[in-house]
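Re: the 506-residue chain
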Amino acid sequence: MTLIKQEDLISSVADALQFISYYHPVDFIRAMRGAWEREEAPAAKAALTQVLVNSRMCAIGKRPICQDTGIVNVFISVGMNVQWEAELGLEDMINAGVRRAYTHPENVLRGSVLTDPDGARSNTNDNTPAVIHTKIVPGDKVEIEIAAKGGGSEAKAKFAMLNPSDDVVEWVLNVVPTMGAGWCPPGLLGVGIGGTPEKAMLLAKESLMEPIDMHELQARGANDHYEAMRLELFEKVNALGIGAQGLGGLTTVLDVKVKQYPTHAANKPVAVIPNCSATRHVHFCLDGSGPAEFSPPDLAEWPEIEFEMGDEVKRVNVDELTPQSIRALKSGDTLLLSGKILTGRDAAHKKIVDLIERGEPLPVDFTNRLIYYVGPVDPVGDEVVGPAGPTTATRMDKFTRTMLEQTGLAGMIGKAERGQVAIEAIRDNKAVSMIAVGGAAYLVAKAITKSTLLAFPELGMEAIYEFEVKDMPVTVAVDAAGESVHIQGPKIWSQEIAQRIAAKQI
């Protein structure tokens, strides 16, 4: 019989969440390093460089890898011979640990969890409650796998109830391109097959906790149908040429995981969930001897690289933007922005559009300005702002035409591709859409020299701020002619990869 103390579980959960906020798992670092070494597409290589440099900076500075510090997922297996010295129930203990982690004064994490999801959408401010899955198993230990899943990767989850004769690989290859780049590739794909709809989703998510071992699997070969499926999907998904951040390149996924469960004879439920380049999870065990301990990765695991913009970089003073200078920017251009930019995400955009519809004045002059789609982490110490990476730009697509035509906005900065509605609005208004690298939030924040709250303070991290930036690295995603790097890049590299496969160079 093992006695587990309440405080041991609470502090272990809190320490685990702090740990994974700033440390990538070692297997992920090694896989990303390998992808960076192999990558030949310049834009994708630059993106991978930023992710790796950011990761090392976070490990040293103990600040979040990504501004999206996730919704907490917990898989807990409780041995049947475990007894608890506790006043709280199991879920309440876990949530107490989450609360402690997300409000840690030396490394505040962003509260991303909202109650009343289709109503008031009020922020809980401490990221509780976690999503908890519990098993009662033989034994005298408590095993916990804990992850902080970012919204971008969760938003790209897909599910289908296939017919028994349908091909799972074919289905996955059809849906991956529809996921876009908002999940910040390269990362992992988790595939769940079988059970019931909710079980397939759970299998997919659970599979993402497994170690990255694709290269070992490639070396020894498949032992069963599902390992063969992993190998096939790994090769064929990468052959799509989506690449890092969707810019086109050799690596889209670092590994593909597959978990299966028996299912009804009439059905074949299949789910796929991606894990992003800010992937973060950890496993620990409680055996009654005290709280869990976590060992940080060796800094030698990261490549000794620095982020440097190439010779083709263009420096842009955003305070001097004109229609002419906007039109001179071309899709794929790498830029260093300096000057004053605005911030604002979904909630701010909705408020702005509502004000316009009611004919009420706007709280901010957007004329010839750029707006950055960001919800930063709160600053600590002498920080101007906490980690401040971009959010997925497609969420703002439905607001884009109104913003461009009714406010005088010159352009926007986000993450990943724009949808056709936004591309057409950008083209029609001779505007521009840029991207910063997802998974490089701490690095991006270092370019912000001043932050001033301008409007909608009630929205918290979604309020409109004015950031003063110095040499903020971005790429032109959609130019004034409507050319999209997220369409052209993968197209070019899928063709390149196909040619290499045909020539047996891959």
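The chain has three domains: 1-24+65-148, 150-287, 314-489.
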